[in-house]
Amino acid sequence: MIRPKPPITLAACLLALAPILATTARADTVTVFAAASLTTALAEIEAGFEAASDHDLVTALAGSSSLARQIQQGAPADIFISASADWMDQIEVDGLIEPGARFDLLGNRLVLVSHGDAAPRNIGPDLDLAALLGEGRLAMALVDSVPAGIYGKAALQNLGLWQGIAPQVAQADNVRAALAFVATGEAPYGIVYATDATAEDRVTIVGTFPEDSHPPIVYPVADLANRDTPAENAFLAYLQGPEARAAFERQGFTVLAR
Fold first, then answer.
1. Are residues 91 and 182 in the same domain?
2. Which NCBIfam families does the annotation name (predicted)?
3. How many domains in the chain?
4. What does DSSP say about strands 29-35 and 79-81: parallel, antiparallel, or unpaired?
5. CATH number, position 237
6. Was 175 annotated as part of a binding site?
7. Full residue range of the structural domain in which residue 125 is found
8. What's the rounded Cα separation, in Å, for the pair 210 and 3?
9. In order along the chain (258 residues), what is the average pLDDT of each group of 10 residues?
10. Between the N and C ends of the chain, which has fewer C-beta atoms within 10 Å?
11. Is 52 annotated as a binding residue?
């Protein structure tokens, strides 16, 4: 005698789907707005975070000033990593950061780079930068708004070098764009972060600017106030973990977060 199969109940269906539903419920997307100088390190961190969690990471990379303005205008970012405390201060004053959800993550150094090989130089008041440039241009990020450009201009002013070369500065939207000018030979020299030079084989570090010639280069991180999800908290924890630390250090960053 063939026994009829028991009817499939709703409860049985839900029980069978429970693992799938649980995974779907946990999965989320974290949108990170980050300074362009973090491009290489964040590519590695993105792959590691996604492999270690059920979450997706979407990164938007540009100059910190541009990203901060987009956040002020309501862009749907979850996390902001700035190359400047000043821009982070502005969005904090606007009430766009979760209370207590900001910390300093990284430090960096400022360097003079050349296209191809070049002799090392001592970066100081005696450097004849105008003679070094000749008829060429000095590539820099926007000197009045992008952190790398602001730091670079401050360093040149403090060393008494800005007046002599200001007309020869070729400004780019962000530090990676300035790096590209030098890498492709459009500019013989440029001022970028040490970590940018590490990421580009076609440039050579000519010298490092004295740390006291410009404000400290600090990268603050903040959880933005538009929403608060487990995925955001997981990513912030990952940023401070050993895998992210190793990725940042491989690119030459100083990790400040403990």
1. no
2. modA, PRK10677.1
3. 2
4. parallel
5. 3.40.190.10
6. yes
7. 110-213
8. 86
9. 44 41 62 96 96 95 95 96 95 95 96 95 96 97 96 98 97 97 98 95 97 97 92 96 96 89
10. N
11. no
